[in-house]
Design brief:
The chain is of the alpha+beta class and about 230 residues long. It has one domain: Cyclic Phosphodiesterase, Chain: A (Alpha-Beta Complex), CATH 3.90.1140. It has 6 helices and 9 strands; from the N terminus they run βαβααβαββαβαβββ. Strands 1, 4, 5, 6 and 7 form a 5-stranded mixed beta sheet that branches. The termini are far apart.
């Protein structure tokens, strides 16, 4: 069933809105329709090689998936969202593009949460086609069943900091991995998700990674492993 994406958007500063749209296709990559009372920010998709005028900070978790299934998901993304696949491995986003001024607060929060978190088993057992109205693209999500509650708890814990002001409660968090992106609904409807491997997909989350996205480049700033 096709439905609007609810957790894959975030908004950059309002003054960057017009400039971002003027960068043609590279700048039509948006996610996470989150906003604050003070600003309305066009979203910039972490999964694409988007030019950024404002550096933004994310916290990601990379599911460790045993081969050959992990390799099939990588190959699937290389075919169905090649720009994003080149930029970042399969991942779950836990903190959505906060301003760089919060970097130290993000680091401190990530370190604290990681020190108190055990390696987490996760299962991706369903798929969903989502329409992104900001990017104006269609996406396929792998949705997390087992472990989804724990991932949501991590998301909530990571936002127990000053940058929580950038989080909107109007769009509930849904743990997932994006594995395909297309411009047209008829194209994404033709994608055979079974090519990514048989569901359910089992994996483990072993830590958190802080990354900075700027000028189309994703830079790892810190890795914080979980307890064994």
């Amino acid at each position: 069933m096709l439905r609007n994406a609810s957790s894959d958007w975030h908004f950059c500063k309002a003054q960057a809105y017009k400039a971002l749209y003027q960068q043609a296709d590279l700048l039509r990559c948006f996610l996470n329709d989150r906003y604050t009372d003070q600003t309305c920010r066009p979203a910039v998709e972490i999964l694409s090689s988007t030019v950024h005028y404002i550096a933004v900070i994310y916290v990601l978790a990379y599911p460790v998936i045993e081969p050959p299934l992990g390799e099939r998901i990588i190959a699937f993304r290389e075919k169905h969202e090649p720009q994003r696949a080149q930029l970042v491995p399969p991942h779950v986003t836990l903190v959505f593009g906060v301003e760089e001024k919060y970097l130290q607060a993000v680091i401190e929060r990530v370190e604290h949460v990681a020190r108190h978190t055990q390696t987490l088993r996760v299962t991706f057992d369903d798929t969903s086609i989502e329409f992104d109205p900001f990017e104006r693209k269609y996406k396929i999500f792998l949705l997390c069943g087992e472990g989804g509650g724990e991932i949501t708890a991590l998301h909530n814990q990571l936002y127990e900091a000053d940058y929580r002001i950038e989080l909107s409660s109007s769009h509930p968090f849904r743990p997932h991995m994006t594995i395909a992106t297309y411009d047209k609904s008829e194209d994404i409807e033709q994608v055979d998700v079974s090519d990514a491997g048989e569901l359910p997909v089992y994996g483990r989350l072993r830590g958190l990674e802080i990354v900075k996205l700027a000028n189309g480049q994703l830079t790892t700033l810190k890795t914080a492993p979980f307890l064994r």
